[in-house]
Amino acid sequence: MEVTPGGGSVRPEPDARASVAIFVVEGEGTITYDGNDYPIRAGSFVYLPAAAKWAFSNESAAPIRFPWVRKVFKVVDGLELPPAIFIHKDDCIKHAMPDILRLRSPKLLRRHHFSLREMVANLDKNRSKMACLGDLDSHLISKA
Question: Structure pTM?
Answer without folding.
Answer: 0.64
